[in-house]
Amino acid sequence: MQERLQTLKEEALSQIEKASSMKEVQDIRVAYLGKKGPITEISKGMGKLSAEERPKMGQLVNEIRTAISDQLEAKVNGLEKAAVEERLKKETIDISLPGRPIKRGNHHPLTRVIEEIEDLFLGMGFSIAEGPEVETDYYNFEALNLPKDHPARDMQDSFYITEETLLRTHTSPMQARTMEKLNGEGPVKIIVPGKVYRRDTDDATHSHQFMQIEGLMVGENVRMSDLKGVLQSFAKKMFGDEREIRLRPSFFPFTEPSVEMDISCFICSGNGCSVCKGTGWIEILGGGMVHPNVLRMSGFDPEKVTGFAFGMGPERIAMLKYGIDDIRHFYTNDSRFIKQFNTL
């Protein structure tokens, strides 16, 4: 029996040495150490041995089983290591090849303008407020001095969801919401950037969805001259120190008096060109002094405080600033258009 065990050991170790795949190793394991293998059969037959021979034979069987198991494990480790090395050879990167350039994105021109405007007004002490794009009729119109039968509602053709909710037509509702939260305790100094929606036919200068930035300042002794100073600083920082502004009388239901602001044309320096239509001036935004009714409905006493408000379209400013001739370029995601602003 001892000779049989030694012969099995030598055969197994020899076959393990020659094995070249995991399957061959597994077959050898089953053939020699499996339930039906010769070593197992020898172990079962030790009961026929004498009491003196049995311990010695048992020890020998265990030694041979351990030797074969250790060799099998070593073979498996060797095959796994060889497989990894072979895979690494196939996956080796040739570092002498030129690399593939990674395309980098850049800020959208409209985003650039909005962030520039935000930084400008933050520097003047304004804070940024945000509000819902789905708005109630009350905040979008009534709280801004536009009751349900007011003819000025026709100025803004709206997307209604229900009779009392709609997609906001301007960012002005945040005037009322902000003042209402403060419950008459000022001062208020905010800008409100965000999307607005109006039922309009899309063309080169109109869109059913666009951006707007609202500005509001409320406090004691706030005057029209303060509005003019803020807007003049805005115009010079956005379009150059040589820019001049003019305020023309206008009408907005939520401001009284109301004005339109023009800047001197930065193309022709006021001499007249196609951009300014020969006038030397370009319309930029609208504003005015907050209507007493708006202050009163929002919890402020118009006898004690006053305020000004203004609203501008970042698309129009971006179009003028960068010479863009079609508002639709901002929203079509054409990479040829976006790439032109990589160096800005």
UniProtKB/TrEMBL annotation:
Its main location: cytoplasm. Binds 2 magnesium ions per tetramer. Transmembrane segments: none annotated. InterPro entries: aa-tRNA-synth_II (IPR006195), aa-tRNA-synth_II/BPL/LPL (IPR045864), Phe-tRNA-synth_IIc_asu (IPR004529), Phe-tRNA_ligase_II_N (IPR004188), Phe_tRNA_ligase_alpha1_bac (IPR022911), Phenylalanyl-tRNA_Synthase (IPR002319), tRNA-bd_arm (IPR010978). CDD domains: PheRS_alpha_core. It comes from the Bacteria. GO terms for molecular function: ATP binding; catalytic activity, acting on a protein; magnesium ion binding; phenylalanine-tRNA ligase activity; transferase activity; tRNA binding. It is found in: Cytoplasm. One of its GO terms (cellular component) is cytoplasm. Belongs to the class-II aminoacyl-tRNA synthetase family. Phe-tRNA synthetase alpha subunit type 1 subfamily. PANTHER family: PHENYLALANINE--TRNA LIGASE, MITOCHONDRIAL, PHENYLALANYL-TRNA SYNTHETASE. HAMAP family: Phe_tRNA_synth_alpha1. Tetramer of two alpha and two beta subunits. This is Phenylalanine--tRNA ligase alpha subunit. It comes from Guptibacillus hwajinpoensis. The lineage of its organism: Bacteria, Bacillati, Bacillota, Bacilli, Bacillales.
